[in-house]
Amino acid sequence: MAKAKKTPLVLLPGLLCDAALWAHQTRTLADVADATVADLTRDDTIAAMAARVLKAAPGKFALAGLSMGGYVAQEIMRQAPGRVTRLALIDTSSRTDDEAQRSRRYALLSQLEHGDFKGVTTRLLPMLIHHDRLADEALVGVVQASAANVGPDAYRRQQHAILGRADGRADLGKITCPTLILCGRQDALTPLPLHEEMAAEIPRASLVVVEDCGHLAPLERPRTVSAVLRYWLARGG
Q: Which of the residues 48, 58, 62, 174 could staple to 8 if both were Cys, CB 3.0 to 4.6 A apart?
């Protein structure tokens, strides 16, 4: 009996995240998905990040992105919608930053220019994970190690890319593939209403809310996210 063919799956990390964000998913979904984690550290625009991902990706693939990775995923849907068989937008938004968000990004960039890259991660942590997990040394260690791996130069490029991204709300209705919208209930950076908005506009979207979870759902609730992604990969066209 022939083995079932695995689904090519491209995973897009968020700001200051690397492959560790998706470690549980790449490991536990290996029986159904041929997963790769894209490198989003080399470009300073969302459009260029998307083009680089598309150049490296197979002809057809499933696509999942968290936060900044979700912005890139939406850009991929604008550049090459026919290549994506199913889409997952996780702890992200289709909107551009408001003034408060832009001010926070510029303040973090200023902190970086003063040589305090490690302090950037420390300042971001309460917005990235559920407050009950701030004392979880293993989880915090993964977040900090990922940030160190990305490094200050790539972080600068990523922030500039995010600041310059397009508002994608008008394009949501053009997404026709099966789409998962997933959000941590306590996501402080991209709250639940932003995901409800996307789910309402994308024709074939399903919304999943992960309880007791902040912005980094694949790290904070890995088993839950992996289970939901398994169902998403198996979902009929």
A: 58
